[in-house]
Structure formats: structure tokens, C-alpha cells
Amino acid sequence: MKFSKKKFAKEVLYELELARDKAVVERGMGLGKVSGEFVPGETEKKTVRDERHGKWVDIVDPTRMYVHEAWVNRGPWRGKRPNYRARGRTDIIKMPQASITIRLKEEKSRLREYEEKKAKEYRQGPWVHLPNRPVYAQRPFYSW
What we know:
ribosomal protein; Ribosomal_uL22_bac/org-type; 28% helix; flat; ribonucleoprotein; alpha+beta; two-stranded antiparallel ribbon
């Protein structure tokens, strides 16, 4: 993984590792090689289209985890402190708090979503340019 040199990049890396460990322990995600569900070299490689980013993705290990979503929320205020101004006035400075949420998924879900989308397209049938139905409100003059 490549990360920025910025200060908060270490916090993001820590949260990613924490989310990965939590997903493995609580949900059993990413354990394909250990559980025997995925055997390297025996499963075929599948290529699916990732609709969120518009790219084609090669899936070799269906139990591999990836970051599906990540977002930052503003949390409650950590505290307040006065800011003394001119002419005896004071302002209250609120110290913000933020939280990061990371949603991990396995490649199996990307495969399933791609297959569901293909099945839906197949169910809908071909697109018809002009359906065979009557045209309503035909008049020999403009109606506006």
C-alpha cells in the first residue's frame, strides 16, 4: 500500500489495519487460503467491471478484501476554550472531533453484484426504439 507523507496518513493506516483485523475476527472475511475455500492455481481468474470506478478488475482470489467505502464524520465537540478578544470580548472556541468509517468487502460480493447486474440486463430484453402503441392527442394544429 502506498500512503501519503502527511500527518494523518498514519492514522488512516492504523484504522485500515484495525478494520481488516476486525473483519477477519468478527466476520471471517479474507480467510480463503486458510479455510481451503481458495486454492491458488486451481481457481480460474474472472474479470468483472467495477461499476463504482468504471474499471475492469481481475479477480484471482474471491476472498480477498478491498475497501468498498470510506468516509469521515464530524463527531461531538471534545471541549471548549475561551478566546479573549479586544475590548473585553470573548469567543468560545470549540475543539472538533472526527471519526472515520471504513467498509470492507470481499471480491465475492463484487462478483455477485456483477452477475446480478448482467442477469437484470438479460431479463429486461433488448431496447425498443419506438414501441408499437398508439399516439394519443393527435391534432392538425399546435396545442400550445
